[in-house]
Specification:
single chain; alpha+beta; six-stranded antiparallel β-sheet; 5 helices; 6 strands
Length: 175
């Protein structure tokens, strides 16, 4: 008797789990430090949290299949250019290495459904992204590397100029 109710509970749990699995969206998270992670997001609010919730902006690929979510005003520690995400943006849009916006901080790549709502990347789309990323030419990589290096020099904190210390000599006063 107990086993039959356990089986029904197990079936109900599995169906419920399947429902949750079907609404989870696989996305790519490009860390500001370099690694790329495949993770899940349920809503745009999840993307907001991943990208540090600062002036969230997005760009779409040339075929409108991929959405690049990023922060327009990354905090100080995330001002570093996200090279991998910027390279993928070149590979999937009509931007070239000279004109692509340098994406900063964390970047999320996802897709959307017909209504414009967040949708998960399929394995075919993940494969397509990998193939397109390999199409970046050595020339584009060099140009992008120079732009990033120039940008890093421009935004790097400059040391404060050395200030000569003024020393006052004290003389003993005669009383």
């Amino acid at each position: 008797m107990g086993n039959s109710s356990t089986g029904a509970a197990r079936r109900r749990h599995t169906e419920e789990s399947d429902e949750w699995i079907s609404i989870m969206n696989t996305i790519l998270y490009f860390s500001s430090r370099g690694p790329v992670y495949e993770t899940r997001a349920y809503t745009k609010a999840d993307i907001d949290r991943l990208v540090a919730d600062r002036a969230l902006q997005s760009l779409s690929s040339a075929d409108h299949q991929f959405d690049f979510w990023f922060s327009g005003s990354a905090p100080g520690c995330q001002r570093r250019v996200n090279r991998l995400a910027s390279e993928l943006l070149v590979a999937t849009t009509t931007f070239n290495a000279k004109t692509v916006p340098l994406l900063r901080g964390a970047v999320v790549v996802a897709t959307h459904d017909g209504a414009g709502d967040l949708d998960g990347l399929s394995w075919q789309q993940l494969d397509l992204l990998a193939r397109r990323n390999r199409t970046l030419s050595a020339r584009d990589e060099r140009i992008l590397a120079r732009r990033i290096a120039r940008d890093q020099r421009r935004v790097a904190p400059r040391p404060a100029p050395a200030v000569a210390a003024t020393v006052r000599s004290r003389t003993a006063a005669a009383h």
